[in-house]
Amino acid sequence: MSSKVAVVTGANKGIGFSIVKGLCQRFDGVVYLTSRDEGRGRAAVAELNKLGMKPEYHQLDVTDRPSVARFADHLRQRHGGLDLLVNNAAVANSVDLYNSYEENEEIVRINYKSILLIQELIFPLVRDNGRIVNISSDCGHLSNVKNKYWIERLSGKNLTMEDINEFVEWFLDSCKNGTFKREDIADEGTVAAYRVAKVALSAATILQQKELKTRNISVNSLHPGLVRTDMTCGVGFYSADEAAETPLYLLLEAPATLQGAYIWYDRKVLDWYDYKADYYFKTSTLKS
Predict the structure, then answer these.
(1) 244 pLDDT exceeds 90?
(2) 57 touches 39 (CB < 8 A)
(3) DSSP designation for 110
(4) Gap between the Cα atoms of 74 and 72, Å rounded
(5) Model pTM greater than 0.85?
(6) For this protein, what is any one GO molecular function term (predicted)?
């Protein structure tokens, strides 16, 4: 029960897989590789076994309450909790810059709403002085939002989860009833659902930190860089292993005082509230 425990969601490939690999090499404790699809997850574990690494495996669909609850029970009963958590499970529709309502709903559900389940069921198991890393994106910086009302509300000092959830529902409702305006989101409203979900995730990180501060748990969100993975259709300037370095730094080396921050792939802490900045994702980078 006393050994330290690290968990990475959505870890059968891409950045999640590379973070698991790095933890197996550098973290003195039990490392869980989790994935929605058990076959793919166990195949990923087998791949790491060939390299002499021995992560544990557990099925985890971050959008499914019973699945998250089962994993929480497993962690509680077998380990009494966990110490490091990487919320990495994500999906993007990179082929199409504009998506249907159904696609947008799925993107938001997996990239943002899943974190609310994890927060409810897994966060209470994170031990004092633990660390949580939410994998966000340059799509997750506030500069991706151009609607003045939502910029003001999301940057308010008294921000609540209700504000964040209403922002997400405003977007989904506008997609459903045909009132979505491309000018409300950066870059002519391209990959809007992914931007909205990641902005919501980055905003939620700030509130999660406030909630967990008394237990000295650090919660940070991170843009890992444009990484060559299936999700970006192979476009990017980083390999998954390179992109895993900053998340691993946050988990294992960063000062405990680094809390509630939005961090760039080069470890720089950016001002998330600087909505006039040029940090927002530009679809032109997918072509370069």
Answers:
(1) yes
(2) no
(3) I
(4) 5
(5) yes
(6) carbonyl reductase (NADPH) activity
